[in-house]
Every structure is written in structure tokens, then in C-alpha cells.
Specification:
By secondary structure, the chain is an alpha+beta fold. The protein has 17 helices and eleven strands. The longest helix is centred in the N-terminal third of the chain and has 20 residues. Belongs to the peptidase M16 family.
Length: 441
């Protein structure tokens, strides 16, 4: 009886979440191939204007890495109609904020303005696409900015290089094998013509999705979109090379010395399938089960009870073509990296052998509901999710149906996916250790 009441309560909660969070939107294409998605939400007097381009670090060549991330910075330099240094002044002077970010698969730009500045936002983003100024002074300026970012976020940051090391081991053919920020020597060696060619190839309307979300009048928004984006010429179709990785069949081992740390780390990393797959969603649930919060399996056992590690956890890095599943621990006291890895592996074997409990499974479902609600809690999150589901997943309707997919995952699937991907002969084991005095010098 008690179990039936719990199941009824969970079902009612899910129904409430699904109905309360349904995101209404309209989508269409311009003649030049740009996809447009509109989401009207009059609850707050703000509007988000965003453009996501289907270009990331995977679209680079091995001797010219870092281009996509470089353009995230470079395209704020100015346009034919926005003088150099004026972009941020225009945004802040009109009560707005803006930013951009780059991943392996896409580059995303957005502005958040008071609703009465939608036309300004659309004009600015169309300017970025139609009239960018890519010259030597802009390239040289942003080259120094990117170098400082690399020093701060990678080179001089504790554990800042571990994902870079993981990627180069898990991928041998795919461009995922290099970091998004790339190599500074590649940017130094590139000519102005190479930067201009990269822009011409990838920053085209038929390689992008425009999202407008927030408080706006739809008819007027469509008219402005046609006015500012419609005249932009369609670019040449992009032919992308496919990179297929051979399965990992034996343990890969590596060691990396980091001069910025004093506590070593042990990392176990697995290559996993595309984020578009059902298995990728299951792996997300497994990482939540293992390390989401202080009541999670790894934290409770290794950190809280046995006090073997200062920190431990699991997370997924989901990407369009492949993903990475990463487990890690920072041993403390007399415990070694091998000791911590042994404890982590024991928990993996348990998931592969036994079904997780009904209680733990329900907790995972509740966390999924919470994540779903938070992801769509504001227009900024909705705008990015609409763009991501369209551009990378190929189905914008997942913004409403993803939660149903997650709730259809079973305990049996969790066990089966753990068996399929999380085996010792399919992984990298990385000893990430403090640098020796010799290495520091």
C-alpha cells in the first residue's frame, strides 16, 4: 500500500512538472537557410536574442586548433557599422548584457535586453554575421586576450590540464582530441587570410539558428528578422568529414605532472556514445547516482565513511559525436591513488551486477525533474536549450519531451549500460600528480 501511494505521488508530480514546464515555440526558415525559433514569454519585460553557429573546435585542422574559440572573441571586435570597441558600450548603454561561449561542437552568442530593444539586438547580431571586420589589429588584440585566458584557465590553474590529457588519450582520429582553446603556436602562425576564410566558411546563415525568447510582439519580431537577416547571402554548403574511432579494448595508462597542484588525482575515463543517444542519458543518471551530492555512493563511502579521499566524483562530458565519462578521486593521508580507484571500481561493479534500489531510482527521477525545471526556469536557459536541441540534437521538440525520455529509463537499463561502457579494458587510467622539482624548473 505504501509503495502504491509513493508511485502515485511520483506520477502526479511528474504530470505537474510536464504540464507546468511546457515550452511553447514557433520555428521557421528564412530563404537563406537560417533557422528561426521564437518563444514568447510576457512574464518579464526582457528579451533574449541569441545565435548558435554549428562550428566548434572539431571543425578545425590539427595544425590550426583554437580557431572556433578565437572567433568567439574576435567577433566582438566590431563591424562595418559598429566601430571597434563600441560593441560592449552599445549593449550596456541600452541596459543589456551579452556574452558568448564555445564548445567542441558549436559557438553561441546572446544578448539580454529590455523588451523595447529587440530591434537593436537583432541588428547587432545581423551585423556580426553580415559585416564583421576581421583585420590585423583585431586578430593581434584577441590573440593576447586568448593567451591570457589560456594561462589563467589552463596553464596556471590547479588540475586545469586534466581534461586535455584525457581527450588526447581517448581520441586518436577525431578532432575532439585537442582542447577547445587550442594551441597558441597555431594561432600565432595563422595568417589573416586563414582567419577570414574560416569566417567565410562557417559563419553563414545556413549554419546557424536564431532564437528570440521573452517579451515581444511576434509579428513585429518576424518583420525585423526578415529586415536584418533576410538580405544575408546563403553560404556554400559545409562538407564535414566523419571521424570514426576504433573501440578501446585494453586499458590505456598515462601520467601527467601538474606544477599547480600538491594533491595527486586518479582519473578513470571512458569514451561514450553521442549525447543524442539513449545510452548517453543513462550514463548521466549513473553519474548522478554515483556522485551528485553528499549522499551519493562515492562521496558517502570514500570521502565520508572511509575518509580515503579529499574529493571524488563522476561526470559526463556529452558531445555531438562522442562523449566522455570521467571518474576521479583525490586520495589523502596514507591512501594511494590505487586504493581510491579500487573503491570506485567496486561501486561500478555493484551497478553492473545488481539493480539499484527503488528508493535510489526514485531519487534519480526526482533529480531529473528538478534539473528539467531549473533548465527551463528563465528565458535565457530556454533560449539556449531551444538552440541546442535544434542544432545539435536535430529535434527542438526535445525541450518538452526530454523529461519523458528520461522517465522511461529503467533500472535494468542502468545496469546494462554500466556493463556496456564502464569496463577496465575500455578506459584510460590517468595518474595526475604534482610536478617534481626537476619538472618545475
Amino acid at each position: 500500500m505504501k509503495k502504491s501511494i509513493m508511485m502515485l505521488g511520483a506520477a502526479l508530480m511528474l504530470g505537474g512538472v510536464a504540464s507546468a514546464q511546457k515550452v511553447a515555440f514557433e520555428e521557421y526558415d528564412l530563404d537563406n537557410g537560417m533557422h528561426v525559433i521564437l518563444h514568447n514569454d510576457p512574464t518579464a519585460p526582457v528579451v533574449v536574442t541569441s545565435v548558435m553557429y554549428h562550428v566548434g573546435s572539431k571543425n578545425e585542422t590539427p595544425d590550426r586548433t583554437g580557431f572556433a574559440h578565437f572567433f568567439e572573441h574576435l567577433l566582438f571586435e566590431g563591424t562595418e557599422n559598429i566601430k571597434r570597441g563600441e560593441w560592449m558600450k552599445i549593449v550596456t548603454g541600452n541596459g543589456g548584457v551579452n556574452n558568448a561561449n564555445t564548445s567542441e561542437d558549436r559557438t553561441y552568442y546572446y544578448e539580454v535586453f529590455p523588451s523595447n530593444n529587440l530591434e537593436l539586438a537583432l541588428w547587432m547580431e545581423s551585423e556580426r554575421l553580415m559585416h564583421p571586420v576581421i583585420n590585423k589589429i583585431g586578430v593581434d588584440t584577441q590573440n593576447e586576450v586568448v593567451k591570457e585566458e589560456k594561462r589563467t584557465s589552463y596553464d596556471n590553474r590547479p588540475y586545469g590540464s586534466f581534461q586535455t590529457v584525457v581527450k588526447k588519450n581517448l581520441f586518436t582520429k577525431h578532432p575532439y582530441r585537442w582542447s577547445t582553446i587550442g594551441a597558441m603556436e597555431h594561432l600565432d602562425a595563422a595568417t589573416l587570410e586563414e582567419f577570414q576564410a574560416f569566417n567565410k566558411k562557417f559563419y553563414i546563415p545556413n549554419n546557424a539558428v536564431l532564437v528570440v525568447a521573452g517579451d515581444f510582439e511576434k509579428g513585429q519580431a518576424k518583420a525585423w528578422i526578415e529586415q536584418y537577416f533576410g538580405p544575408i547571402k546563403k553560404g556554400a554548403p559545409i562538407q564535414l568529414e566523419q571521424f570514426i574511432e576504433e573501440p578501446i579494448t585494453k586499458t590505456i595508462t598515462d601520467r601527467f605532472e601538474d606544477a599547480n597542484i600538491q594533491i595527486p588525482a586518479i582519473v578513470a575515463a571512458y569514451r561514450t556514445p553521442s549525447m543524442k543517444t539513449r545510452d548517453a542519458r543513462v550514463l548521466d543518471m549513473i553519474s548522478s547516482y554515483l556522485s551528485d551530492g553528499k549522499s551519493s555512493r562515492l562521496y558517502k563511502k570514500i570521502v565520508d565513511e572511509k575518509k580515503m579521499a579529499l574529493q571524488t566524483g563522476a561526470f559526463t562530458n556529452s558531445q555531438e559525436d562522442y562523449g566522455m565519462y570521467i571518474l576521479y578521486g583525490l586520495p589523502m593521508g596514507t591512501f594511494t591513488a590505487a586504493d581510491v580507484l579500487k573503491e570506485i571500481d567496486e561501486e561500478i561493479v555493484k551497478i553492473q551486477t545488481d539493480l539499484i534500489s527503488e528508493k535510489d531510482f526514485q531519487k534519480l527521477q526526482n533529480k531529473s525533474d528538478n534539473n528539467y525545471v531549473n533548465a527551463n526556469a528563465g528565458v535565457e536557459g530556454i533560449a539556449e536549450n531551444l538552440a541546442t536541441y535544434y542544432l545539435l540534437y536535430g529535434d527542438v521538440h526535445l525541450i518538452n519531451s526530454e523529461i519523458d525520455l528520461i522517465h522511461s529509463i529503467t533500472r535494468e537499463e542502468i545496469r546494462a549500460v554500466a556493463k556496456k561502457y564502464l569496463n577496465p579494458n575500455q578506459r584510460l587510467v590517468l595518474d595526475y600528480v604534482p610536478a617534481t622539482e626537476k619538472a618545475k624548473n
